[in-house]
Amino acid sequence: MLYLIIWILVVVASVFFFKKAAGSLSLLKPNMISIIFYYSFLISSYIGTLFIAVGKDDYYMINHLKHEEYRWIGFYVISFVMVIFPMVMLMVSKLAGFDAEKEYKSYLKKRIELPFQEKNEFFLIFAGLAFISLAAIAYTFLKTPKIPILEILIGHGDLSPGELRVEAQRNFGGNYIVRNMLAIALTPLLSFIAYVYSVKTNQIKWKLLFLSLFAGSILINIYDLAKSPIFFYLIMFLLLRLYVGRMKFSWKRLFIWGTAGAIVLVSMYIVIQGVTDLESYLSINSGPIGRLIFAQIAPTFLHLDIFGKSVPFLNGRSLPASLVEMFGMDQVRSARLVMSIVFPEKIEEGTAGVLNTLFIAEAYANFGYLGILAGTIFVAVLVQVLYITFIRLPKNPIFLSLFIYFTVNIPRTLVGGFTDFLFNPIWIFVTCLFVGILLFIRIRIDLANLWLKKRSRGEIRR
């Protein structure tokens, strides 16, 4: 009963602070902070935490806990983060003079600017990037020995869908930068930008470019049979339509989309994992429900249970490889290490990868409870600074698409690891690429205008 009372009080406090930091927690007007609250914290983390604390989970990962006291220790640690994280974000807003509710509403109504829409040079650069990203998708498929989605469709091979997925990830024979940055990360972003231009200009060239990039994005998100990427891409696309003003969310639409998503998810479980038992879908500790409320948070309890007792703290070895190697050490991701300790047989079989979980777990694995405190403050500050920055930037196709990209990918990363917030090559790449293009074209235009002015004044001879 005590845990339930604390849980309710924490949720109430968390809702209050998150709403103040976001400007709105309405499901009809989703934003980066509200998605973080609902997806990363409430659904993926805190609901399951209560069941684990009271011992009512019966979840296969938690059954591997060696020290039962980490059920309640984990509960209090995650409760702490649930409150401190949004409190820090609210403090950042106060320091920046950011009125979340007012500025968020203003952003939704703000007119979209179309920089360089008359400049053919911009379209050619963008079309070139689109060609590169689509070529990267083709390259990814060519360098993947067995394409899981194709193997399922044609019904060949002796490998299970889960094994096919691991094979596709582990036995990829190409360049990972080409696959991860140019195919997986760049293509969806380009499709968003092309969509905004196609809607606002109504030009055939932008529409054709969008359709090709949309098809490419769908393919690269489903080829390896991963269930979540395609859902997140479609969520980003719906958010984009909302922010562009082409769609309004309603409870009816949310119900229809939720029902359709559930049907598709169940179908994927049947096809990919062969789960046909109805009880598995209705049980809280298996199937889609168990995946939602336990799969992302259970490894946090395992991290608390393992590091500091069974395994020494990593002391920074999970930090970005480029930094760790400077000190003559090998990078060790805690999520992979925990998987190898808890499920060594799956590692040997080649059917397991990492146990991704709430970001504080990796922070704890490296620096203990101090890592949880420092990591929570650091990530909260970073997230709120990004949110404020995007809200205050001009609402053009590039900045809007980056905003949508981070709106969905930051919540995903919060339940993926801590060090990705310290150095994330993909985030840096896409941001520098598109901001660089804007700056390059702007500088070219300014120089051309300056040259014309000087020429008109006779300062430059023909």
UniProtKB/TrEMBL annotation:
Signal peptide: none
The keyword Membrane appears for this protein: yes
Domain of life of the source: Bacteria
Membrane-traversing stretches: 6-28, 35-53, 73-100, 121-142, 176-197, 204-223, 229-245, 254-272, 367-390, 397-414, 426-445
Keywords assigned by UniProt, alphabetized: Membrane, Transmembrane, Transmembrane helix
KW Ion transport (keyword) present: no
Protein name as it appears in the record: Oligosaccharide repeat unit polymerase
